[in-house]
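Attaching the record inline, Q. Sequence:
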Amino acid sequence: MQATQVVCAFQNGVSIPFPTHSPQPIRRKLLRGTDFMAPTPAPAQSTTNAQAVVNANAGPRLRLNFLDGIRGLAALYVMLHHAYVEVNFNFDGVGLSRTIYQAFNWLMYGQVAVSIFIALSGYCLMLPVARSADGKLRGGFWEYIKRRARRILPPYYAALAIFFVVVVVALRWPHAEDPRWLNPVKSIRPTTLISHLLLLHNLDDAWIYRIDPPMWSVATEWQIYFVFPLLLSIWRRLGWGTMLTVAFLAGYTPHYVFNGAYDKAAFWYLGLFALGMVGAIIGFSDLPINRWWRDWLPWGALALIFTFLAARRLAIDWTDKWVSDPLVGLAALALILYCARREGAAKPDGTRQPLVLRLLNSRFAVTLGTFSYSIYLVHYPLFSLTNSALLKAGWGRDARVLFLLFVASPLVIGAAYLFHLVFERPFMPGSPHTQKAAAVAAVQSPAP
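Structure, as predicted:
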């Protein structure tokens, strides 16, 4: 069967072919894939959201919008999770009616979405490298760090400055329920601010959840960026199987060596990031050994299996995130590879797209994905401020949960979009001026 190539342009200026070949049995070195192939040239084309197009000889245009869609829905879930746990912060339902508790307790698993963010970040950052001629970062290590810093740090520092003022000034009244806000002024020490400025606040319990609690994962991912080049070196020399093994071993070492003392920093995310890297290698490589993995495995079924196993583990003990997070990462990897395969086989009218792909390609999900980083940065302090005001006004727990979920959440999304326009979009590649251009930039240079 003649191969069909889906071409995807990413941040290193190289067009990335996505071949969909008939599967062929491969008997050797299934965990390697280090022979580099020069990228297949593609004609220059104007691009839109998520940057994936089919070349002129291969048929209709194709967009990998689902990458933005996954990120957008994950950000939405994290936001709703924090709206719920802002009131039910002990996850025990005390003070909530049985109806409210049962209706919304599915929102208690916020770190699942963060695990998806990490795997997706590894996938997107690996795409241009996996199909480059030498398997190296464009411009070398320091240029790569500069690109990451420009994309991540300006919105981060803007949110940090804004919500430092919110915590110190606006939350001066005691937050009688959540012990993190009992005395917010005294909880913010110089070391707290310095650790946030250096993105090291995930290393100490006295720092990690101060000012803007979700920022802990930004610190963890920022630290992973410095390990990414080392993982690339291992991949080039020893293949992705060894690279993945080293990443998980290194990620879990702090858990065992320090007896869980640093588990809040979730250093095992390094393994999830590496899973995303493997997804890019398998999905966008034309090497026979990687085609075997891509074409012979039932990625849709694997996504369902890993999702079931992760859900089962969370139902047994959701606090053992070091056990459930890798299952979430595997489910995300399988889902991404499944969606990419189905995008390559879809008709122009989308009639062959499965329901999950239509959902991830929806305008709502893709638009949220464009400014998901801003949603992640600003939502929590706004919910805390709102909940504190409602608590001071004498609102009960049920009423506050409903208000935060159905009234405050849309307003927070609007505030996040305004924050995105001012503090995030100007620092995206090309400083895009339109929503479509921002969607392109979000794929080219993903945020956490």
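The CA atoms of residues 33 and 287 lie 7 Å apart. Confidence is low (pLDDT under 50) at residues 1-62.

More tomorrow.
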